[in-house]
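Hey, can you fold this one?
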Amino acid sequence: MDDAAVLKRRGYIMGINLGEGSYAKVKSAYSERLKFNVAVKIIDRKKAPTDFLEKFLPREIEILAMLNHRSIVKTYEIFETSDGKVYIVMELGVQGDLLEFIKTRGALHEDDARKKFHQLSSAIKYCHDLDVVHRDLKCENLLLDKDFNIKLSDFGFSKRCLRDDGGRIILSKTFCGSAAYAAPEVLQGIPYQPKVYDIWSLGVILYIMVCGSMPYDDSNIKKMLRIQKEHRVNFPRSKHLTGECKDLIYRMLQPDVNRRLHIDEILSHCWVQPKTRGLSSGAVNREGESSRSIEPSSISEHVSEKKSISKLEPQEQSRSQALSDTKPEEETVQMQVSHHSDAEGLAEQSLNKEAEEGDPPKSPEMQT
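Sure. Predicted structure:
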């Protein structure tokens, strides 16, 4: 029985193809029960790699079934057929994803970015409070509903945190994500704190929201790592970002995992709170600590200004995008953003490798 017939029997009228990979595809469908369109991810067990079937798919299904938050894509139904196909029926992001939104409209004004970032941060707090980590936060995985509210999607690399006898979260050894959004500890291939990893990716996302470009050039991982470890963050001067906004980004893009913000600290930051103005927590100095004697406009010698605007340029061959940052009389720096979260697209960055097992895990190549 083909997919359309299977879905029809379950009360769904299959629509257009939204994406397709080697062992997973996403279709739109109309739900006769819900009376609106949904997205259906269809995974073919016969084509999927063993490590995905044994580890990542069970985790994703378990976590999707337990999540219920207004800023997380809803999962309406999960079922499997006798021929080995898994169908995950989810909320449809009718306005596309955040990357496409920024490509079309440019960087967001801080007020709009604040609203969307607060929605995303609330979703991450909800997950972290449940000891669930996402581990693949990026603009492509942030869908927009009809009112352009954020809906976090793609939990293909998510997991429940394990704790030791003392209640401490055990470090993760599965290195996954997209290079441009990956924290330096992950890029270096060392065991990492999964919740702290999510925070770095949040910092990259907020930077993209307000700047319209990537904070780091991931075409040269070694060079990018060096800049990250020096805690250098460059902001386009033309964006005229507030000191509070730059302060928050700087604190999330903290290479020292022991000093990187936690999700509760992000939500209580003065920039995220719309009624609180002024850097009450103090601007960051070059070591990243608070200092009330430093004005927001001169946060740090490591937080510098770029003189030109960075724009998002679409590429024809795929949804993977290049965020180009062009400086006058300087070469153009291409910054690749991977759309897919499967291992193939990240092999060159040595991500998505299982430290203990050796074989790179894969997740469904096309996510909603």
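The first helix runs from residue 3 to 9. Let me know if you want another pass with a different chain boundary.
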